[in-house]
Amino acid sequence: MRVLQVNNHHYLKGGSERVYLETSRLLREKGREVIEFSVADAEIVDTPYREWFAAPVDFFGGGLLERAISSARFVYSREAKRKLEALIERHRPDVAHLHIFYGRLTSAILPVFKRRGIPVVMTVHEFRMLCPVYLFIDASGEICERCARGSYYHCALKRCNRGGLAYSALSALECYVRDFFFPYEKYVDRFIMVSGFIEDKHLKYRPALEGKTARIYNFIDAGICAPSHVRGEYYLYAGRLSREKGVMTLLKAWKEFPRRRLKIAGDGPLRDEIVKYTAANNLANVEMCGYLKGRALSETIKGAGFLIVPSECYETFGLSIIEGFALGKPAIASRIGGIPEVVSDGVNGLLFESKNVSSLIEAVGKAERIGAEGYGVMSVEARRCVETRFNKDIYYEKLMDVYGEASGRPGGWRVR
Question: Which of 119, 182, 302, 351 is placed for a possible disulfide with 107 were both Cys, Cβ 3.0 to 4.6 Å?
Answer without folding.
Answer: 182
